[in-house]
Amino acid sequence: MAKMPKEVIDALGNEHALKMMATVNEAGIPNAAVIATVTALGEDMIAFADFRMRKTRENLDKNGKFAVTVLTPDLKAYQIKGKCEGFQDQGPLAEAVNELVYSKVRMQIKAVGLGSVEEVYSVSMQNPGEKLA
Q1: What is the pTM of this model?
Q2: What pLDDT score does 100 carry?
Q3: Comparing C-alpha atoms, which of 81, 94, 72 is closest to residue 23?
């Protein structure tokens, strides 16, 4: 596992940042979706809510690979590559994420996905492709 630098963790914590997750199915067809709930769970794990991510969830259940790109309002951008470690549909984390999502969009989540961080890159204009972890 890799450890995300503080600036990447901060970007994931920025509620105004755009966050997208890319996955690929068994036939190699990519899928990208806006997943605004992606957040850091420490330096080497991310979490995200599943409430309307059918294709993304199918792909993660099949091969587990993902890439998350986050773009902050000040145009700093990062890509996190990793592996899905599964989904929790109950427990303290699922309850906390559900409360947070419900308070903002009045929707119940299905589960919380967990992902281990394998690589981190800058995708900012100043240093595109620079490996950060």
Answers
A1: 0.91
A2: 81
A3: 81
